[in-house]
Design a protein that fits this description.
69 residues, 12% strand, mainly alpha, globular, 3 helices, Multidrug-efflux Transporter Regulator, Chain: A, Domain 2, three-stranded antiparallel β-sheet, single chain
Length: 69
């Protein structure tokens, strides 16, 4: 069975999925810790929900804890 197409999240949705503040997610982007899947013509970031979940499993929670210290 073919894999369904990715579901893209807005930045606020991705931040909620990661249980972090939207500013924290934007900080991670600014410092190169994570990249959005693409940006819209207007410059808005979009995130693949499955990749965001994989990033979370790979250790973003550890980075979040370090950023908040």
């Amino acid at each position: 069975m073919p894999k369904p197409p990715p579901r893209y999240l807005t930045t606020p949705e991705a931040a909620r999925e990661l249980s972090v503040n939207e500013r924290t997610l934007r900080h991670w982007v600014a410092t190169g810790q994570i990249e959005p899947d693409f940006r819209t013509a207007g410059g808005h970031m979009r995130w693949d929900v499955e990749r965001v979940r994989a990033e979370l499993r790979a250790g973003l929670r550890d980075r979040r804890d370090a950023d908040e210290e």
